[in-house]
Amino acid sequence: MENQTNQDENYDSSVDQNDQSTTEITGYSTLSGESFGYCRTNSEGSGFSEPTEENSCSDEPSPSHAKGVLNRVETKEQKRSMEDKSEPSNSVAELEMMKERFSKLLLGEDMSGSGKGVCTAVTISNSITNLYATVFGQNLRLEPLKPEKTSMWKREMDCLLSVCDYIVEFIPSSQNLEDEIEVMTNRPRTDICINLPALQKLDTMLMEILESFKESEFWYIEAGNLPATSTRSGSFRRSFQRKEEKWWLPVPCVPPTGLSEKARKQLRHKRDCANQIHKAAMAINSSILAEMEIPHSYLASLPKSGKASVGDFIYRYMNSAEKFSPDHLLDYLNLTSEHEALQIADKVEASMYTWRRKACMGHAKSSWGMVKDLMSDTDRNDKNHILAGRAETLLFCLKQRYPELSQTTLDTCKIQYNRDVGQAILESYSRVLEGLAFNIVSWIEDVLFVDKSMKAQD
To answer: pTM for the complete prediction?
Structure first.
């Protein structure tokens, strides 16, 4: 009986070893990088071994037992292959797209590879702008983004913004050694530390506003699908928001009785939030553009006289008025189109830098990068200094009155010739968020305008 018991124990141990070796070999051949983790996970369980009868006295493994082991191995292999096939089919396409965009980034958008592409800063700025157009370009109404669009925006923006993690500045730091040695340590650059988290917060808030319109009391119809007798026509659109050339924009519609008071309050609250986000993004964008170096090509194109740039009427008003009122001047100019407003903005900005340069002519330093420092030393009663300050105030009021105004010639020139990657990311990110916030405010005001019109009809 002792011999028989020993044979049973030897048999059980041989079966366990065979089962374990089968498990390890099969798992290793099925996987590559994760093979060892896969083996450990499955070998710790009782796994592939079948329970045996205690009274079994056979010296060889039973056929049913071996068959059960093979069946379980095959089942594991089939399950693993099905999991591999169940992965999203678009993962390969996304990887190829990321490779393509990374290649364009390295090539500077020059597909010939001859090194004639733009610099890295301009490439990243264009990438953020193009991504915004891809994700939000077809979003013309108050509704949540499609899940794939939201995923694309978050994924690719995380990739583009990750560059900022490696932009640092060096500061002196003392080490507590025997002799206090001052060494240089790095930290994230100040402008990125301040502005990037703020922009990411604004981004999240805008996405939350769009996401909150899953269920709403209003709806949209395409402008071309409006019935001929419909009262919901272009008359419900305010002229400064929906011009005739933008005929493709959908028309908001509300119930005949108008929106409920609760929905109206929520819309106003979201409009106010989006308006504050727009102002914050515009302030960050303006500060980043102000810090960018002015290209020499723009300085060379400045007029010799600020008066010749702005014209006789604007110059006389800016020069003669004791208390300069930019709002009164803009009211008198009565600008009727965005094109006229942009022309005035370009002229005022050019004259501003012309007067600043004349105010600093007495200094021996000729570098334009020192003009801002020199302006603080300039006599505050100097005529050119006063005119430059008034031109800056007029330009600011002009941009406030026309928030949808395109970029001025100087802003476009700065972005085109900028070489600072950090500034390029902050400028383009704030610019696209500013545009999105402005669109949301406009869309909400359109709905409120339609609701007000419906109530007036009733």
So the answer is: 0.70
